[in-house]
Amino acid sequence: MDFPQKTAVKKALEADSIAIIQGPPGTGKTNVIIEIILQILKENKRNPDIEPKKVLLVSQSHPAVDKMLEDLIRESDERPDLLRIGRDEKLNEEIKEEYFEGYCNDTIGLRMGIVSAI
């Protein structure tokens, strides 16, 4: 990462409530966002006694979200708990198989008490 990207990561991690990453195509926004999420996941793991931080990743484009999820999964040390919501026909097949809402309802939702077993 170059200096502006590292600065963006630092500012986002230090933000009180929200951070917005913007820039023209090809400036590394995806890499910055992935690094921010990875740092949050690492911090959650280092501090299991405090409420874990949560991340909401949104985009107007399904492929953009899927690309970031693919990068996040590839860069993560262990399988992250994710929930992918979107129109079924628009989702990347690999992401859909592992992280689509139905999968989460059956596994993560049961574990977290969000849904109950029938």
Please provide a written account of the structure.
By secondary structure, the protein is mainly alpha-helical. It has a domain of 81 residues. It is 53% helix and 0% strand.
Q: Which tags fit this structure?
A:
118 residues, 0% strand, 6 helices, disordered C terminus
Coarse morphology: globular
Instruction: Output the structural class.
Output: mainly alpha
Please give the number of β-strands. 0
Helix content: 40-55%
What's the Cα radius of gyration?
15 Å
Average pLDDT, all residues: 78
- SSE topology string: HHHHHH
What fraction strand?
A: under 5%
**N-to-C terminal Cα separation, in Å?**
48 Å
**Number of helical regions:** 6
Uncertain spans: 103-110, 113-118
How would a textbook summarize the main sheet? none
Describe the secondary-structure layout.
Layout lengths: L2 H12 L14 H18 L15 H14 L17 H7 L1 H6 L1 H5 L6
Helix pairs in contact: 1-2, 2-3
In short:
This protein has 118 residues and is mostly helical.
